[in-house]
Amino acid sequence: MKVPFSYVFRNLWTRKLTTMLTAGGMGLVVFVFAAVLMLDAGLKKTMVGTGSYDNVVFIRKAAETEIQSGVSREQASLIESLPQVARDRDGTAMVSKESVVLISLTKRGQDKGSNIVTRGLPPMGLTLRPQVKITQGRMFRPGSSEIVIGRNVFEEFEGVAIGQSLRFAQRDWLVVGTFDGGKSAFDSEVWGDCEQLMQAFRRTGFSSTIVRLADSNSFDALSKAVAAEVRFTVEGKREQLFYEDQSRALSTFISILGTVLSVIFSLGAMIGAAITMYSAVATRTAEIGTLRALGFRRPSILAAFLTESLLLSLVGGIAGLVFASFLQVLTISTLNFQSFSQLAFGFVLTPKIVVQTLIFSLIMGFVGGFLPAFKASRMKIVDSLRAA
Amino acid sequence: MRPARQRIDVYFLKLIFKNVFRAKLRSSLTIIGLVIAIMAFGLLQTVVDAWFAGANASSAARMVTRNAISLVFPMPSYYRDRIKAVPGVKAVAHSQWFGGIYIEPKNFFPQFAVDHENFFEMYPEFLMTPEELLAFKRDRQGAVVGRKLADQFGWKVGDVVPIRGTIFPGEWRFTIRAIFDGKDETTITRQFYFQWEYINEYLKKRFPRRADQIGVFNIEVTDPGRIADIAKAVDAEFKNSLAETLTETEKAFQLGFVAQSEAIVVAIRVVSFVVVFIIMAVVANTMAMTARERLAEYATLKALGFSPKFVAALVYGEALMLSSIGAGIGILLTLPVASGFANSPAGAIFAAFKVSSDTVLMQMACALVVGLVAALVPGWRSARIRIVDGLRHVG
Questions:
Q1: b/e code A165-199 from CB counts within 10 Å (16+ = b)
Q2: Which residues in B lie closer than 8 A to residue A21 (C-beta atoms)?
């Protein structure tokens, strides 16, 4: 015979302050736990959204980022001539030879500069990134000292409004528009004309070369062709993987820090749950005896108290999750250690995270409530009835 | 009347102490929770401090000059002589971030190609014997490493360390010629230095366009009081040139890195206070339950003539004693745990990991606040309880 659920529920309801405090403690832990998962999911979404599967990024061997890399004009032309590279209707190879530098801009409310990726790209570069859309103003004109600003840079940095100019490399660069990269890493970049930027920075080689594959499956063939040619000291990676690798260190950092914190914090919350449940058992000793005398079996008592603890943690878990979901309006902009530049990303709540978080809170409730519930179920009828 | 009052105080404390340990299981669980939370708070604050280690280790008499566009752009090496000629500049050295990989990326440590003639003269906080320094200067492939780094990988003087270049392609081999200790605890000894000439000679042969380029200039000034003016004078020297410069104090330069990852620092700070809130809820719960169980007792005390203030003081005293015991153990445990972490492989990523006295003070303040807040509602309720209701109350 099972103890009715309403008995469990009402026990929590009568001790509102205790229930609220215990669930509140658990809710805070769940909040931290969910926030970390959401941040990591947001980072991954940003990086995966940046690359497209059919694009391949070529950078110099041993270089890990575009900033460290150099691709000579000769190498870029050789890549362009490979048969695996897609051609558009005019027969032009779908190749974007790009120059990437870091410039220092000042965040609003700070007095120190932060590194911003500034990408010089030819018109084909825009074709290869269809997710990038101009939101205000217009695109830069090829062959001019004009630049367009990514959404996050526009929102967080000073001096980048349309009509303003940035001064670097002995030139003034006029801001003519802002673009939305569809929540990708491009939102944290500044774009301009490749040849103009290279001239200004006195560069002779490109940083990277991005190509569209003619056939999605021809990546291996392309890699092989590049590996076979001694003049190539470059390496290709699918764009999606390339960007995922760029944020691996940051992602690992977030998840390790988050996991360690969640585990330590959950100890505190589990202790809180145990205290509450032990006290519930202690004050209800006579009740437990009565229940037993009425014919409820030991497992039913165990189940009743465990359910109470699980319900408590579920309330905390849901509360924590609700508050964590508000984080989705926030965007975090921080230094990506690998690319040494600012990267903005948000919190993303996925169904998987909801399930993980609720399971996490139920585990806290189970661990915290098991011993007290066990104690309740082991009580002898006579002793507990006498305790009143 | 004085002695009598003092006796009451002693009894009062005794009563509180007895009360704390009346429900042994609950009190011990609460104390364990407090220990974990206060320790976690202290360790998180120390992580934040570690972020600022570079800035704290900087000297007030040194400046750093970099390319104004951003750190990844170099400056021509001839800038050195022009900087040296600026009035107020005592010495100039240069360094270049190498960013290589030792065996695999997770073994990250900072490597700098430096001006071997002048660099270490400018950094007296790196302690090594003159013989070792001389041996380094004489070996083009020589390297100077910090004690912490040498201990981490078990390196000795004479060992050969292979490093794969990412910015400077190729497999580089260095021979350790000196291992330096820090002058005091703020000195960071996790760096790897070698001769800038070594990479420059290679670049001259392979990539002549990239040769004779400098990442940053390190400048020592004669008068730290005039450092801002000297910095301006240096930057004025290169105004409207191909590589305009930005000169700032070493501290400001280091804080620039912190500012770039400020979001992470803020997040860790916020989270460290979240743990205090969690434990606040736990202790408040303990106190609420305790006070509820003892309502009849408090009513009895009031019936005997004790004031509501006395009853409230009992509740506050109990909460504060509970939080002080927990925090005391937590603070005592923070130090060994922090040093254990600092010496573990995971702790090696931090240049310095030491619990500061400010952190300990903040831990104490947190314990005080937790105790006071936890007693707020129960204390108020107990003080206000009507004697009749309290005596009738069954916990």
A1: ebebbeeebbbbbbbbbbbbbbbbbbbbbbebbbe
A2: 281-282, 284-285, 288
* Residues in contact with B251: Cβ distance below 8 Å, sequence separation at least 6, in sequence order: B55, B58, B60
Mean pLDDT, each 10-residue run in order, chain A (388 residues): 86 87 92 94 91 92 86 91 91 93 89 90 92 94 94 92 90 94 92 94 91 92 86 88 89 88 90 90 88 91 93 95 94 87 92 96 94 91 80
Interatomic CA distance for residues A156 and A342, integer angstroms: 11
Q: Are B220 and B61 in contact (CB under 8 A)?
A: yes
Taking only the tens place, the pLDDT of each residue in B77-134 is: 999 999 999 999 999 999 999 989 999 888 889 999 999 999 999 999 999 999 999 9
CB-count exposure of residue A215 (10 Å: 0-12, 13-18, 19+): exposed
Torsional class of A113: left (φ above 0), alpha (ψ -120 to 50), beta (otherwise) = beta
Which of A110, A274, A342 shows the shortest C-beta gap to B29? A274
Alpha-carbon distance of A58 to A85, in angstroms, equals 13
Q: Name residue B94's beta-bridge partners.
A: B217
Euclidean distance between CA atoms B64 and B246, whole angstroms:
8
Nearest to B248 by CA among A111, A165, A101: A111
**Alpha-carbon dihedral of residues A70, A71, A72, A78, nearest 10 degrees?**
170
**Assigned token pair, B278:** 């969690």
ipTM confidence? 0.83
In chain A, which residues have their Cβ closer than 8 Å to the Cβ of B261? 334-335
- The CB density around residue B173, as the number of other CB atoms within 10 Å, is 11
**Widest Cα–Cα separation across chain B:** 97
Q: Write out the DSSP string of B334-392.
A: HHHHHHHHHHSTGGGGSS-----HHHHHHHHHHHHHHHHHHHHHHHHHHHH--HHHHHH
Mutate: best of B69, B212, B242, B333, partner A, most A CBs <10 A: B69
Contact B274/A274, CB-based, under 8 Å?
no
- CA–chain centroid gap for A104, Å, is 24
Closest-CA distance, B135 to chain A, in angstroms, reads 31
CB atoms within 10 A of CB A284: 18
pTM score, whole prediction: 0.86
Q: Which residues of A touch B277 (CB under 8 A)?
A: 28
pLDDT single digits (tens) A100-110: 999 999 988 88
Q: How far apart are CA B355 and CA B49, in angstroms?
A: 8
* Helix ranges (DSSP H) in chain B: 2-20, 24-51, 53-56, 79-84, 119-122, 130-138, 147-153, 196-206, 227-237, 250-260, 262-293, 295-303, 308-343, 357-384, 387-392
Q: Which amino acid is at B209?
A: R
Question: A93 forms bridges with which residues in the sheet?
Answer: A87
Nearest by CB to B395, from A168, A169, A283: name it.
A283
* Chain A residue nearest residue B34, CA to CA: A268
With beta carbons under 8 A apart, name residues in chain B contacting A334.
260-264
The model's pLDDT over A311-345, given as tens digits with 9 standing for 90+, comes to 999 999 999 999 999 999 998 888 888 888 999 99
Nearest CA in chain A to B106: A249
